[in-house]
Amino acid sequence: MTSFRLDGRPVPFVPGQTLGAALVAAGRTSWRTTRNEGRPRGIFCGIGVCFDCLLTVDGVPDQRACQVLATEDLEVGTQEGERRAP
Amino acid sequence: MRVVVVGAGIVGASCALAAARAGCEVVVLDRGQVGAGTTSRGEGNVLVSDKEPGPELDLALVSRTVWGRWAEELGADALEFEPKGGVVVATAAEALTPLGELVAGQEAAGVVAHAAGPDDLRGLEPHLAPDLPGGYHYPQDAQVQPVLAAATILAAAVRLGARHRPATEVVGARRSTDGALQAVLCADGSEVAADAVVNAAGTWGGQVGERLGAPVPVLPRKGYVLVTQPVPALVHHKVYSADYVANVAASTEGLETSCVVESTRGGTILIGASRERVGFDPAMEPSTVALLAAQAVRLFPVLERVQLMRVYRGFRPYCPDHLPVVGPDPRVPGVLHACGHEGAGVGLAPATGELVAAHLTGADPVATLGIDPRPFLPDRLLTGAGDATRTEDLT
After folding, report:
1. How does pLDDT run across B37-80, given as a tens digit for each residue?
2. B228 with B291, same domain?
3. Cβ contact, residue pair A62, B267, below 8 Å
4. What is the pLDDT of residue B256?
5. What's the confidence (pLDDT) of residue A81?
């Protein structure tokens, strides 16, 4: 099965799945913490609107897990908070 | 005196608080929830910088003072009141001269403004584009979170005995045979006894006025606001291009854009502001979003790498002469108007509330507030009995 890596560890996916869908399918429900209170966040709306499911993709922070299609070569990272310096 | 305020937006809430403080028995009715109309569709601007000298600027200066007082009384955090100041920049050298002329007139009216050369601009806003020729710093400009502020102000009125009934639409008024107002009629069949009714229905003030037998020409002007993802503090003031002032005062039909950029306490950056006369058509035009985004990047190149999270839009209520309509309707006893503030309703709300309270109690607003009420009276917009002149056709 194909996989991408989250913080260096493989996450399996089927072609056409988003990063968020693959993470949820793998049993993962959170991969970001909020900036003020460090509370866990994962998929909320699932359609690109709420910006809750942010993660770092190939070094670029604040990408929406529900909008990025999973591919074999992606290096994905969890995030603490958002508001990364652009 | 029993007063019904129609509209629980920032203007209605301010009227309710000022009237309750003046000793009136107040009931606030709104067909929706607090701040659900135009109040929630703007940026919470409390600006003196964008106004040309005249009655609106005079009202804005008084209102800015009242905002500062209310922030002390109600708590700055409960309003997210931020006296951050404004920075108006010229995007081309030839815009500096007309901007300077505007500033001279504003200063004569009581506005504080400091000329800012390119180096000063960098000190005020380190991320501004380095090639901007200059501008002005307006320390009096401020910002509130408008829905939070409306809720806080309304809650303060309620603590003084005012009652708030959300989800209650006003459909008419009952009068005695001699024409005196007796009650305001609601869509659910209930009625609220009243000696006076304040039309603070914002963009829908024309419609509410008509239901009260006192139509006023209040028209919608659509405006967009773009919201970025939360970012670290990149923008410290309300920053806008000098074109904004020209567009605020303009009366053209077509789309006008001139960007206003500011950060919020939540970390998002708000990018306004377009103005467009398309009636109540809520359609979103992606090219307008692109235009505003490009103008914001022109001021702050760093924004090119920031994601847009969402776009909201709303309808700014304007009267044909671009002044709000505040005061008693000369045709219908007991009806007062407090609407038509266009994009400045948040900034002008506290002074509007105080002015309405003065009208209700018979106080002299010149003596108590330093406001000449005459430029805002409905009379200027009306001809004939019980009829409003529609000087513009929106359809």
Report:
1. 999 999 999 999 999 999 999 999 999 999 999 999 999 999 99
2. yes
3. no
4. 76
5. 67
Tell which of B269, B287, B318 closes a domain.
Answer: B318
* Tokens of residue B63, six digits: 């209102």
Contacts B231 to A, Cβ<8 Å:
83-86
Nearest to B28 by CA among B40, B20, B36: B20
The model's pTM is 0.90
The CATH number for B353's domain is 3.50.50.60
- B258 and B197 housed in the same domain: no
- Name the closest residue on chain B to residue A51, using Cα atoms: B309
Report the chain B residue with the minimal C-alpha distance to residue A63: B307
Same domain (yes/no): B154, B295: no
User: pLDDT confidence of B258, banded at 50, 70, 90?
Assistant: confident
In a domain, B387, yes or no: no
Q: Which domains does chain A have, with CATH numbers?
A: 3-80 (3.10.20.440)
Residue B77 in domain: no
Across the interface, which of B231, B267, B310 has its CB nearest the CB of A49? B310
B362 touches chain A (CB under 8 A): no
Q: What range does the domain containing B359 cover?
A: 2-62+146-218+321-381
CA B274 vs CA B99, B260, B313: distances in Å: 20, 9, 9
If one counts the domains in chain B, the total is 2
The whole-angstrom separation of Cα B184 and Cα B190 is 9
Residues B199 and B50 in one domain: yes
Residue B302: closest CA among chain A residues belongs to which residue? A86
Q: What is the pLDDT of residues B127-164, one digit of tens each?
A: 999 999 999 999 999 999 999 999 999 999 999 999 99
Q: What integer best gives the mean pLDDT of chain B?
A: 92
Task: Dump pLDDT digits (tens) for A18-75.
Answer: 999 999 999 999 999 987 788 999 999 999 988 899 999 998 888 999 999 999 989 9
- A35 neighbourhood in chain B, CB within 8 Å: 230, 267
Size of interface A-B (CB pairs under 8 A): 25
Distance of residue A78 Cα from the nearest chain B Cα, in angstroms: 17
